[in-house]
Structures are given as C-alpha cells and as structure tokens.
Amino acid sequence: MTNKIALNFEDGVTRFIDANLGETVADAAYRQGINVPLDCRDGACGACKCFAESGRYDLGEEYIEDALSEAEAEQGYVLTCQMRAESDCVIRVPAASDICKTQQANYQAAISNVRQLSESTIALSIKGESLNQLAFLPGQYVNLQVPGSDQTRAYSFSSLQKDGEVSFLIRNVPGGLMSSFLTNLAKAGDSVNLAGPLGAFYLREIKRPLLLLAGGTGLAPFTAMLEKIAEQGSEHPLHLIYGVTHDHDLVEMEKLEAFAARIPNFTYSACVANPDSAYPQKGYVTQHIDPRHLNDGEVDIYLCGPPPMVEAVSGFIREQGLEPANFYYEKFAASA
After folding, report:
1. What residues does 20 pair with on adjacent strands?
2. Quick check: helix, strand or coil at residue 122?
3. What does the pLDDT average to over 164-170?
4. By Cβ atoms counted within 10 A, which residue in 207, 218, 238, 272 is the most buried?
5. Which residue has the higher pLDDT, 335 or 165?
6. Of 113, 74, 89, which Cα lies nearest the Cα of 19?
7. Cis peptide before 307, with omega less than 30 degrees from 0?
8. Which keywords, in A-to-Z order, does the entry hold (predicted)?
9. pLDDT mean across residues, the chain
10. Could you tell me whether strands 14-20 and 2-9 are parallel, antiparallel, or unpaired per DSSP bridges?
C-alpha cells in the first residue's frame, strides 16, 4: 500500500511522490530523487520542518521539542524525517525545487478536441500516454507551449486527469498567439508540450464553508475543484459566484448545473457586468456576495480572476470588517 504525497515547493513547483506504508516522507522523497531539506534524520535539528496542509499522518515519537514544538505540531508542522503518511497528503516545503534537486515535469500530448464555447472562450482537451503519469492538485496550472513557437502560456486545468486526458478553458484573445493557433490552425492530433504542475492556488482540505469566486475563464480551476469535491464529498456548504463582462462570456453553465445535482450542499449563481445584459443577475460578483456566504468570517474564500476583480473583492472583504479564515486567490491577465 502506498500514499501519494504532493510536495509544494516555494517557487510554485509541485512534485508527487509515493510513500510506502511506514516509510518516512523524507525517505520516500530521497528514494524518488527529490532531496528535501534534511540534516540529522533523527528529529533533533528541525532542518526538515515542513507544513502539512492536508492528510492524516503519524508525527513520530523520536523528535525533540527544540526541533518541533507541541504548538507547531498542533498547527500542522511536521518533520519529514519522522512523518509517516496514513493517507494522501499535501506538504509545503520551505525551499525552492532546484535546491531539492528537482524541477517541473515535462509531458508530450496531442490535441483531442477544440471547441469554441463562445466568441470569448475556447475549450481545449489534450490526451497522451504520458499524461497518465500527470498528477496535480485541483486549481493548479501548467505551461502549454504554443505549437510552432517557443512561447508558452499558463492555463489552469478545468478538469481532473482521466484516462490520460485533461482540459482547459482558454480566453480567446484577438491576436493572441495561442488563441490564433486554436481558432485558425489547431486540429485533433496536433502535438502539444506542457510543463508543470505549478501554482499555490489549489483546493485545500475542506474544514469549513467555501466561497468560490470566478471571473471569466477563471472558472477553469473551480470546475476541476468541483470534480474533486463531487468524488470525495463535503459536509460543508459551498457556494460559487461566477462573474463575466458580457452575456456571451457565460459558458459551462450546464456543467455547473450538473455539479449542483451531484454535490448536495453546492449552490451557484452567475452575474453579468454589462448593464445592457439580458441575464437576470447583473453587476459584479461583490454585489452578489450575501452575508451568509461569509459566515461571520468562518469561511475559506477562493478567488480566480483578472487583477481588478481580485482588488475589488479584497476591498469588499475589508469593508465588511471580517477576516476570513483563509483567502486564496490567483490573478491572471491575457497575453497578446
């Protein structure tokens, strides 16, 4: 029996390792060629101290207070030379990936499907044998190389990996390098290179209600998160607010409706900023955040959208005089 451990390095690179039953995380990492910070191996120096964001584990009994205090252990800190995973875990490593003798992984795949969801949004699916080995945390992204160039573009996964296939939501930018390729040249079977996964924006262990805020194609990481939540379930309420600029920017509404049917305590709403919109709910996402969604601050907020949206939501939360338990966000801007 093995458990999958996600090691998140401070430069945004994520690598996955398999830990055998009873094997320390440090030993598992070294066995798979990743040199996590380590010195004494006896739980005495604290050099291997990391933060466990999720999962069940045994802390071990051989470490000393100077290496890991009781207060730190209660907060979620661990010594990887002593920690033994009892489930899949996510661990934040306070070091860059290159220092740990690892780097982002590279994969080769082929386009399996390209669909124009609207004049502003393209759905891209890619598939390949190598992608069967691709693991990522829902919400993370990869760098896709634009075929025929040496340029890359960063896109969040909009689905989980299944049978070697993953999907993305891509904004159709007039004159954009990737957009131009996908709308004018792309066809099934075209080769695509990708590198990753990357990013600190990903679904953590659900310990309280969630408020998910998506702007435009910032919906992508949330559909991947919702796939995961649908698989594992959640005892806490989840609410998604999806904001766009124009009516034609609203995409994947059927998918959100399907998630609402699959996840008992998931609800969602959408809004269109254009005042001339025919959609029933108009305005910005901040105008549709109900006080119950903030739960007096006992809430984890996830936000993915363009920089002005991130700033607006941050200001709105401050104005409410509330401090959410956690506020995770990712800004994105289109590349011409």
Report:
1. 2
2. strand
3. 96
4. 218
5. 165
6. 89
7. no
8. Dioxygenase, Oxidoreductase
9. 92
10. antiparallel
- Non-local (6+) Cβ contacts of 308 within 8 A are none
What whole-number distance in Å separates Cα of residue 185 and Cα of residue 180? 8
d(CA 174, CA 286): 28
Distance CA 27, CA 24 (A): 5
User: And the tokens for 146?
Assistant: 């634009």
DSSP for 111-159, written as a single string: EEEEEEEETTEEEEEEE-GGGGG----TT-EEEEEPTTSS-EEEEEBSS
| Structure confidence by residue, pLDDT tens digits, 24-55 | 999 999 999 999 988 878 888 888 999 999 99
Give the dihedral sign, CA 77/83/88/91: positive
Please state, in angstroms and as integers, the Cα–Cα distance from residue 248 to each residue in 117, 252, 295, 333, following that order.
9, 11, 32, 19
Q: CA-to-CA distance for 63 and 69, rounded, in angstroms?
A: 9
Q: What is the CA radius of gyration of the chain?
A: 21
Give, as one character, the DSSP assignment of residue 42.
S
Residue whose C-alpha is closest to residue 18's, from 78, 27, 233, 10: 27
What residue type is 308 in one-letter code? P
| Residue 107, strand partner residues | 194
Q: What are 26's two structure tokens? A: 């440090």
Report how far residue 317's alpha carbon sits from residue 295's, in angstroms, rounded to the nearest whole number.
12
Burial bucket for residue 90 (CB in 10 Å: 0-12, 13-18, 19+): buried
Q: What are the φ and ψ backbone dihedral angles of 72, each rounded to 5 degrees? A: -65, -40
Mean pLDDT to the nearest integer, 65-88: 92
The pLDDT, as a whole number, for residue 66 is: 83
- Would the CA dihedral through 308, 288, 229, 222 be positive or negative? negative
DSSP reduced 3-state for 3 = strand
Coarse DSSP helix, strand, coil percentages of the chain, rounded to the nearest 5 percent:
25, 35, 40
Burial class (CB in 10 A: 0-12, 13-18, 19+), 204: middle
Contact 303/329 with Cβ under 8 angstroms?
Answer: yes
Report pLDDT for 334. 61
Q: How far apart are CA 222 and CA 256, in angstroms?
A: 10
